[in-house]
UniProtKB/TrEMBL annotation:
Protein name per its UniProtKB record: Phosphatase YfbT
A Pfam family hit: Hydrolase
Lineage: Bacteria, Pseudomonadati, Pseudomonadota, Gammaproteobacteria, Aeromonadales
GO molecular function, a single term: sugar-phosphatase activity
InterPro entries, per database record: HAD-like_sf, HAD-like_SPP, HAD-SF_hydro_IA, HAD_sf, PGP-like_dom2
């Protein structure tokens, strides 16, 4: 095992699949939603990971009332969150991070994100970029550009942790460096490294920024 040392001004963190084990819950909600509308779930499950509900519905069920369906999906996600489980090591890393040195950048709504983090017993961010904060969701770079902007930083000075292809593409297009969380293959050759979980990560305050040590 080797150690990779990275320096960054701050971390930009995805949520589902990156901080919280919620992929199964997200898929359950989409399956229930598809059943309600008599739609085959497979096409939706193929594109929904890391993507806003808006883009998923717009792509595969554009005739539906978008605002109403997004609100319905939010309610369903709250209902099915349960006792969310954080990824191993995630809680201790977040608890040791200065609150001014990280932001959450998620395709979930602000309400769902805060509910899921609280259910997992994770710290709530001072800065949160959610589904309604952007006009174009992941894989567009807008979410991560806004995340860096809200921290007053250049994207190149931020290190992103992401698990989904759409999120990895969004972060790279924004000019951020990316650590991939999970998966059995690297989603993009431009990612810095890939981790199984947060037990491989140590973050140390280093002057005005952070030093991130990753065991690979």
């Amino acid at each position: 095992m080797t150690r990779l040392t990275l320096n960054a001004a701050a971390l930009l963190l995805d949520m589902d699949g990156t901080l919280v084990h919620s992929t199964t819950e997200v898929e359950t909600v989409w399956r229930l939603w598809c059943r309600r509308h008599r739609l085959a779930p497979e096409p939706i499950l193929a594109i929904c990971h890391g993507v806003r509900s808006f883009e998923v519905i717009q792509a595969l069920a554009p005739d539906l009332d978008l605002a109403r369906e997004i609100a319905l999906l939010d309610e369903m996600e709250i209902l099915h969150t349960g006792a969310a489980e954080p990824l191993a090591g995630c809680r201790s890393v977040l608890q040791g991070l200065p609150m001014t040195h990280w932001a959450l950048v998620t395709s979930a709504s602000r309400r769902v994100a805060l509910h899921r983090l609280a259910s997992a017993g994770l710290p709530l961010p001072l800065q949160l970029v959610g589904a309604t904060d952007v006009t174009r969701g992941k894989p567009d770079p807008e979410p991560y550009l806004l995340g860096a902007e809200r921290l007053g930083l250049a994207p190149a000075d931020c290190l992103v942790f992401e698990d989904a292809l759409a999120g990895v593409q969004s972060a790279l297009r924004a000019g951020c460096r990316v650590v991939q969380v999970g998966g059995d293959r690297t989603l993009d050759p431009a990612v810095v490294t890939r981790i199984r979980d947060w037990r491989q990560v140590t973050v140390i305050k280093d002057g005005d920024g952070l030093q991130i040590r990753v065991q690979t």
